[in-house]
Amino acid sequence: MSGTDGSGCTAHAAALFESGDDLRRRVVPFVRDGLAAGESVVAVVSGRAAAQLRRGLGADERDIRWQVPDVSYRSLGPMYNGLRRYLAGQYEAGNRIRLIAENDTTSSAARTAAYLRFEAASNHVLGTYGFPWVCLYDRRRHSPDVLDAVRQVHPLLVGSDGRSAPSSDYVPPETYLRAHPGPLSVVPPEPPVDFWVTTVGQFGAARRAVAEAGGMLGLTEETGDDFELATAEALSNALRHGERPCRIRVWATPHHVVMRVDDQGLGDDITTKGFHPPDPANVHVGGMGVWMIRQLADVVHIRVGAAGTAVEVQFPRPPALERSARERQTSQS
Q1: Which of 27, 206, 286, 323 is the most interior residue, by most CB within 10 Å?
Q2: Could you tell me which residue ranges the MEDS domain spans (predicted)?
Q3: CATH number, domain at 316?
């Protein structure tokens, strides 16, 4: 399972499994091949998957690195950026590794859609470092539509015998990203922030209103700073590249604080931007702002249509607030 797929990307495979035994049959050979070749094997997976793999690996499990610093699935943008930095560092150091990855958080359909966009983009962004990696998907936890998308964003699929073969459903990353830009959330009738921006002079007031709302809705100081920066980038893009007036709204769900910017422009292919690190020599081409937004936020959804462009960003609320919101929903149902 090393080498490249037919498009020139480093082997990026999906292992779709339906039991612990099935997982071991598909993935343990990948691990042992790497160890036999003198490679370091890194696994960033759920506790369930780690326990199943340990059963199959026996004493070999001591040679696996089970986590990576600064890589957590609690927030997808920082996860993607942290993994990219880790792989870049390993590449620059001349190390040989192979990776096993699994999104270990329970996700909504919208958050899963955002994660699959990162999976698609990683074929080129992470694939440039030359490391083979396998992504785990438990068939029991995902809908048929999600599993169909998994086959579209992975060039290779791991069979029940541990061998990989090309996915007949695979599509190039930009094709997938253009076709799957959202979905946007439903905006509540009276969000805490609903601000129209018609002039550049209103930028500062809008940014302050959003920052204050983020704090009131429960974001930590560190996350609140990132939320404010992502807002500033999204609003700057709308003012610079879109058509006014722009509208900015902020609200909270049980799991996230959400910010959405709408403008009247057509987005200039924005749905595929922000996944690749911008080239400092070509910053005039654009894309730096969207790159920053995607690396800061947990979820980014974008819609471009006849009505204009909408950019939605979501930042996770602290776990205690999530639990409190879930308990309130349960008591009211």
Answers
A1: 27
A2: 12-155
A3: 3.30.565.10
Which residues, at least 6 apart from 141, have a Cβ–Cβ distance to it below 8 Å?
Answer: none
Instruction: Point out the least confidently predicted range of 27-31, 115-119, 303-307.
Output: 303-307
* Reported pTM: 0.89
76 neighbors 118 (Cβ within 8 angstroms): yes
Q: Report how far residue 264's alpha carbon sits from residue 310's, in angstroms, rounded to the nearest whole number.
A: 9
Q: Which residues, in sequence order, are bridge partners of residue 25?
A: none
User: Is residue 185 one of the residues assigned to a domain?
Assistant: no
Task: Label residue 4 by pLDDT band (50, 70, 90).
Answer: very low
- From the list 298, 15, 50, the residue with the least C-alpha distance to 142 is 15
Q: Show the DSSP H helices in the chain as ranges.
A: 20-36, 47-57, 76-92, 109-125, 144-153, 173-179, 203-216, 221-241, 288-296, 319-332
Residue, of 59 and 69, whose pLDDT is higher: 59
Cα–Cα nearest to 14, from 32, 33, 27, 31: 27
> Is residue 157 domain-resident?
yes
* 154 and 106 within one domain: yes
Please answer whether residues 297 and 234 qualify as being in contact, where contact means their C-beta atoms are separated by less than 8 angstroms.
no
Can you give 238-289 as a three-state secondary structure string?
HHHHCCCCEEEEEEECCCEEEEEEEECCCCCCHHHCCCCCCCHHHHHHCCHH
Helix (H, G, I), strand (E, B) or coil at 215: helix
> How many domains are contained in the chain?
2
- Asked whether residue 168 is assigned to any structural domain, the reply reads yes
Q: Is the pLDDT of residue 75 over 50?
A: yes
